[in-house]
Structure formats: structure tokens, C-alpha cells
Amino acid sequence: MNAAIAHSEPLYASLPGDIGISFEFFPPKTEKMAETLWESVRTLEPLQPDFVSVTYGAGGSTRERTHAAVQRIVEETSIPAAAHLTCVDATREEVDAVARQYWDSGIRHIVALRGDSSDPSGKYRPHPGGYENAAALIEGLLKIAPFEISTAAYPEKHPDSHDEAADLDNLKRKIDAGATRAITQFFFEPECFFRFRDKAAAHGIGAEIVPGIMPIMSFASVQRMSGLCGTAIPAWLETLFEGLDERPAARQLVAATVAAELCRRLYAGDVRKFHFYTLNRAELSYAICHLLGRRPGDTA
After folding, report:
1. How many structural domains are present in the chain?
2. Domain containing 46: what range?
3. For the chain, give me the number of helices (H) and strands (E)?
4. What CATH number should be reported for the domain holding residue 283?
5. How far is the C-alpha of 100 from the C-alpha of 97, rounded, in Å?
6. Phi then psi dihedrals of residue 281, to 5 deg
7. Most buried in the list 24, 132, 172, 245, measured by CB within 10 Å?
8. Alpha-carbon distance 230 to 134, whole Å?
9. What is the pLDDT of residues 96-144, one digit of tens each?
10. Contact assessment for residue 150 and residue 179, using Cβ atoms and an 8 Å cutoff
11. Is residue 143 part of a domain?
12. What's the half-sphere exposure (Cβ side, CA atoms, 13 Å) at 103?
């Protein structure tokens, strides 16, 4: 029924903005990047997101910058902020100390992840004395304080998982350990998310699964990231971005159109929450939310 309505009514005009939104940023490396990040936060703040999150480098390599960015969001905006935390290259005591620091700073939401290996070989090995995986991390965090916890899901299977069943088993362990929701890795076909959502439900996973949306700012960068995380790039997408390397304005228009249409089709499939990977740039995500009917001051 919803799909029929989506195809019969004017494009986007009927979408009421009844969506939950969240945005992901990464900690800035320079003062100029910090200015860009803060401009993006301020641009997106009027949309009243459910939360924004700030990523965490392997082995805590961005620990102080992550904490500073999250702390500033907490202190200077009205947006609930979440900090990413991983298991990589740290003992349980070190991870627990970071979590306590977050709680003491007023941060109540953590995105708990296993994290990517800092080993050049790419093979993940648990740190001796550290948390073995994300499920163990979630259990440990909830012993420290009653955090709200988000975790990761992979519609096309995590590259380290043996098969889809093993990947779903791992997601269920994270949810059973106490995660509130799962946020997916980015993908480009709506059917990819719908298939995954159905498989997760059949696997006994009842928690909220939020699609992660990646507006394409650089096709080369997306190709690189997709190769690392196992995301398929459909041929039609590559064709759309062909010839736009030297035309950033045209590329941005195409990127907004593609991501908004993906979201519209997800909405037609009863998705009401979206998580945007902003890469610290606000305009694409803002435009997509606008097309979905979300306006400043709106809440789902």
C-alpha cells in the first residue's frame, strides 16, 4: 500500500517529515576542520536530530579529539550527543576509564563497536586483557552506567564474518547484551536493507534497526570505503557519477538526488528513522531531510 502511494503521488510532496534523524561526524584534525565540523553541527541543529555521534579512531587514536567534540556538542547545543567507543588496542581498564569519563561529562549515549584493526595486515586480534568483541564491550559498559547504546549492523555481512548466519548471530549477541538499536553500514539499494531487516526479524532480533545513509561527496572515496566494509556498488551508481570528478556542484546535485530517492523508497517500506554519515559536511544531509519533509523545529 505504502509503495503504491509512493509511486502514484508527486515526488516527495506528500512526505510529512514524520521521521527520526541522526547524524555522524568524525573528530577534526585541524583548526580549519574543526570550524567546518562546527558549522555543520550548527546547520543541522535546527532539524532537531534524535542524536549526533562522533567517531573514535583505532586504538583510541582520536580519544581526546572525540571527547572534545562530543563535550562541546553537549555543552553548546541542544542536540543529544553520542560518543563512539571501540575494543581495539586497549585493555578493559582503559576502555572503562574512557566510559566513566564520558558518563561524568554528561554523555549518556555510546555507539559501541568492535572497531577496525590497527594492524597493517587488517586482521583483527583482541587486545590481551581487552574486550574480545562488541557484545562483551556492551556488557562491560552497562556494568559501569545505564548508557543508551547503539551498535553496528551489516546488511551485506561484515567482511570478517564467515557467513550471513554468523553475522546475524553476532548482531543478536550485541542486542541481547543490551544494545538499544543497531545502525547499519551504508548501502545503495533499498532491497538490501529490506532483506536484511526481514532476516534479522526471522533470527529473533527485535531491536530497532536504523539504515545508515551515505550521501556521496567523492565517488572514489566511497569506492575505497565500500571495499573495506564489503558494501556493493551497483553498476548504475557508477554510471551516474561517471564524468563528475571535476564538477563538484553537479556531483553534489546527483548525490542528493540518489540518497533522497533511496530514503524515499525506504520510507515507502515503513522506515521512519535514518542515520546520515555526513563526513562533517551538512548540506547534502540537510537537503535530503528537506526532501523527506523534515523542517527546522520538526520532531518525529
Report:
1. 1
2. 2-291
3. 11, 8
4. 3.20.20.220
5. 5
6. -120, 130
7. 24
8. 19
9. 999 999 999 999 999 999 887 666 556 767 677 889 899 999 999 999 9
10. yes
11. yes
12. 15
Output the DSSP codes for 238-284: HHHHTT-TT-HHHHHHHHHHHHHHHHHHHHHTT--EEEEE-TT--HH
The kind and range of the H/E element at 200 are helix 190-202
The answer to whether the beta carbons of residues 107 and 79 sit under 8 Å apart is no
In a domain, 300, yes or no: no
DSSP conformational letter for 100: H
Grid cell of 166 as nine digits: 554468523
- Residue written as cell 546520515? 276
Catalytic residue from among 24, 93, 94, 208 = 24
In-domain check, residue 297: no
Angstrom distances, CA of residue 98 to CA of 104, 181, 213: 10, 22, 28
Answer whether residue 27 is part of any domain.
Answer: yes
Which 3 state secondary structure label does DSSP give 69? helix
| Mean pLDDT for all residues in the chain | 89
* pLDDT tens per residue across span 158-192: 888 888 999 999 999 999 999 999 999 999 999 99
Give me the torsion for CA of 204, 210, 216, 219, rounded to 10°: -20
The pLDDT averaged over each successive group of 10 residues in the chain (300 residues) is: 58 76 93 93 96 79 82 94 88 92 94 76 72 94 97 91 91 97 96 97 96 93 89 94 91 93 94 96 93 83
Kind of pairing between the strands at 181-186 and 51-54: unpaired
Active site residue 39: no
Strand (E) or helix (H) holding 83: strand 81-86
Find out whether 58 and 127 touch, Cβ atoms under 8 Å. no
